[in-house]
Amino acid sequence: MRVLRPRRTLAALLGVLLGALTAGGFATSRTAAAHGDDARPGGGRRAVPTPFEALLPAPVSARAGGPGYAVGPGTVIRTPRGSGAEVRRVGELLAEQLRRPSGLPLPVVDGDAGGGDGGGGIRLRIDGRAEALGEEGYRLESRPDGVTLTARTPEGLFHAGQTLRQLLPASGPGTVPGGEIGDAPRFAYRGAMVDVARHFFTVEQVKRYVDQLAQYKVNTLHVHLTDDQGWRLAIDSWPRLATYGGAGEVGGGPGGHWTKDEYRDLVAYAGERYVDLVPEIDMPGHVNAALASYAELNCDGKAPARYTGIKVGFSSLCVGKELTYEFVDQVLGELAELTPGRYLHIGGDEAHSTPADRLYLDMKYDLTTKPGLAWAGLVPVKKSYSWDPGAYLPGVPESAVLGVEAPLWTETIATRADWEFMAFPRLLSLAELGWSPAGALDWESYRERLAAQAPRLAAQDIPFYRAPDVPWGK
Is the pTM of this model over 0.85? Predict the structure, then answer.
């Protein structure tokens, strides 16, 4: 377990995260052909994109051609015999994701009647020799006899399944267009942060966000669990943190907290969708909820009142007390035991550097947006997309960029509808900037593909901001 100590301006304001670039490549297909039937998104050749052209995030390569596969009542999802429980689980999850919009039964079967891995339908295949695909890459091939998803790992198969979902209608059965896709991510870290401390949200709502992230190949959820206004996770060694420090929020609402079992359930749910959970206990500042819960954590031994405002910079742990270090050790120790992922986040702000004007999802789209703030400026959809994480920071080469993160602070966000309205569609900018090759990043093409996502977002009851410079249609 590594403990992250970056300032919020790196991991939460922008976020461009620095580290070794570990994303696998599909290096032979980084540049799409400019002629023929190549339909790679990014070319912007058509006002109304075909399903292959409308994919978001844009894949490394996509070539449409020939008749496709009609998904119907007889369609099955085939997992290879002997491929293991995880591949079977990926198949079952894909079936569940496709059943809801299509209304089809889509049973999951092992191989075919002859004992092989052939047969019609949607076929999942693991190819351990496909090293060029990396850990997350995949190939998708659609022919009249079926659709074949190939990856080196189950995680790659999962991402292939999310692409397949976009090739089918947002509701009802349909036909997967004929063609091939080869794909792998540009950056290893593609993250979104949500703040459940300023306003409390349940684990079920966060699970809904996990599904939304995974659908667009965002693979990290950073959860801001504590702040001045509330402490949202039970800690056995300091129980009043949650029971007292969690009983409030911005505006004076009742707040709330998660039990350890609820947190474990969220971690497992995210992991099944290949989303790593990064928990944050903010310190040494932003700790009024903790100081209010335990008087002895304060330098003067007096507990302040619980806080329901949104100003920052007034609270801090008492660095001169030995008890402070016992507190930090016990809290982070319990959190580490609950978290199987690689990272813990400990805040470390406020720092005075602000590349915050691109993917801060709680900034207003324009002056009329409600909710939202504007201290980092307005962030319209075009601005959230029109930058290159690999070349944004002077003197920092792309090889030093681990990835990107879009934070959503909740000072003004108290409902699911507000949360999703502020996240969508700017979250899709994050998805493409983190996954797609640099050569695919083009606003004119992107806005057409973004508009094509509207029926899918509406079918999933996701409220979103209809940016005026995106051709949403009716």
Answer: yes
